[in-house]
Amino acid sequence: MTSSERHEARFQRRRKARKAKRDVLNKKYGNFNNIIAFESLYNSFYQCKKSVGWKASTQKYEAHILENIYKARRLLRNGDSVFKGFFEFTLRERGKVRNIKSVHISERVVLKSLNQNCLIPIISNSLIYYNGASLYRKGISFHQKAIVKHLTDFYRKRGRDGYILLIDYHSYFENILHEPIYKDMEKKIYDKRIINLIHQTVDVYGEKGLGLGSETNQTFAINYPNKIDHYITEVLRIKGYGRYMDDSYLIHESKEYLQYCLQEISKKCTEVGIELNEKKIRLVKLTHSFTFLKTQYNLSTTGKVVRRVERAYVTRNRRKFKKLKKLYDLGKLNIDMINTAYQSMRGYFKGKNSRKTQYRLEKLYHDLFMIPIMVDNMKKIGLAA
Known about the structure:
Elements (H helix, E strand, L loop, with lengths): L2 H27 L2 H4 L2 H11 L7 H8 L1 H13 L8 E8 L2 E8 L1 H19 L16 H19 L4 E6 L3 H4 L2 H11 L3 H12 L11 H9 L2 H10 L4 E5 L2 E6 L2 H18 L9 E4 L4 E3 L2 E5 L5 E5 L1 H19 L5 H15 L5 H26 L5
Antiparallel strand pairs: 1-2, 3-5, 3-6, 4-5, 7-8, 8-9
Helix pairs in contact: 1-6, 3-6, 6-11, 9-10, 14-16, 15-16
């Protein structure tokens, strides 16, 4: 047997093994009846209800939950669309405008059932381990630990004599093409009724792009560049690689090789319709600090990875607390709303080496809010004039 014949035989064995895995997954999770089962939709609603139970639309749906689930099951069995349109609004985050397309509660119930009972179990099997956005027991904290692990592993072999390439996709959700999603789903899911439902969930966004605010869109987005992830880890042989939605990093000892990797990644992105954000691409020497997912990293001479909050975050929060103080004095906000922002800030500092910075922000919060509140309470009980 020649070398090419051995390679072909090995390829066919791996292809057969992957097909066998897909068959097992489809037998367990690729059943349309499981998605539209009454128990599945009922449980999906109570998961959707978390943190939004105060909304009138959610309460109205719950008041007639049996009737609403029955209507959804009837439409889905007939192959009809359950989508009614969007609640569209914009959010401005650090000067960047994001267009949000939120779906109705009745549609979210169906999408969550589709995502939890089919898409996640089947798709996650093919994802690389360090692709963890929107996945169970993963997220930003998972990736913060991952990049620390990759830096530490690299230091043990090469010290700080290396580079990290930071990559960002431009207008990621807006530029996702629909046809690659359909082809990939048809390859992984056998039930035509599920494929028809996937078409319905994607087609409502027009010719291309996915809206922010839908759970299934998050799953499609983490899976969309999956071929690029495997190309980087298996063909380019980058061990220190991770991706969080549209942000990714590559660690290697050679600057020239990372530049070559960037060229190859750019070609692969063009094939699937992804555009790289040239303004945010960075190639940084590991002796310098760099920022990934709003956290500043520094690989010290001893191999310790120091994580600090970025300076812009501190500035924003100082300004934010001062604005909240003005609204509090005008009676437009209560202390519970302000305390939510404070607890969010404390959670952001968790696991970072920025104790002095955290202390100064907490001191500002207490000076602005806690002292006036204590004085007001003392006045109420007659202990202060």
